[in-house]
Structures are given as C-alpha cells and as structure tokens.
Specification:
- The chain has 2 helices and no strands.
- By secondary structure, it is mainly α.
- The longest helix is centred in the middle third of the chain and has 22 residues.
- The model has no long low-confidence stretch (mean pLDDT 90).
C-alpha cells in the first residue's frame, strides 16, 4: 500500500489552521506541523531512480 501524501498534507494543513492561539502549546504544535508538512511535500515530489538504457554508439562522428 502506498501513502497518500496529498491527503496527508491536506489534513496537516487543516490542523495547522485550527491552532491559531498564541499559547506555548499552539506555537510549538504549529512548528511541529510545519516540519511534518515539509517532510510530506518532499516525499510527495521525490522521484524514483530511473532505469538508464545505454544504446550502442557509432564510432563515426557525424558533422
């Protein structure tokens, strides 16, 4: 099963919007959520290594 990074990001951003207080817990929770959102975004856009196919080249150079 693969992770649904888009859905996870949406839920984390909604949680971030709910924590608008200036108390210590809200501030620290927002900081933690920011880190989680960043990690999800990085994972979402990570590419799998590509398979490189080497093709034979001609010994003659074309000009």
């Amino acid at each position: 099963m693969q992770s649904d990074y888009v859905a996870a990001r949406i839920h984390l951003e909604r949680a971030l919007k709910q924590l608008q207080g200036e108390d210590k817990v809200s501030v620290r929770a927002r900081e933690a959520l920011d880190l989680l959102i960043e990690a999800v975004v990085v994972a979402q856009h990570r590419r799998k290594p590509a398979n490189v196919v080497w093709l034979p080249t001609s010994r003659k150079t074309r000009r």
